[in-house]
From TrEMBL:
Protein name as annotated: Prolamin-like domain
Keyword tRNA processing: no
Keyword entries, A-Z: Signal
Signal peptide region: none
Amino acid sequence: MVLAFLITWSCSSAQPIDPNACWQTIKHPPHECLESIKRIFHGHVHGIKKECCETVSTISDLCWPIIFPSMPYIRFLLKGICTVKYSLH
């Protein structure tokens, strides 16, 4: 298990993350991804647009705890929804 961690861990993930950069990634217009994600919390799963899914796929795993500190698994939920809906990986 430690070997798997060492293989998948990269130097870039060890770098400190700028919280402002994380927020700008998800708030960046024109797709207003943050609003689409908030609607998912109210059961509107089908409202997430492809552009937002593309943004979700580019957000660093280190940014998710900054953006949603009380929801550690939100990135997996969103990536799953986007994979099913738009076949994005």
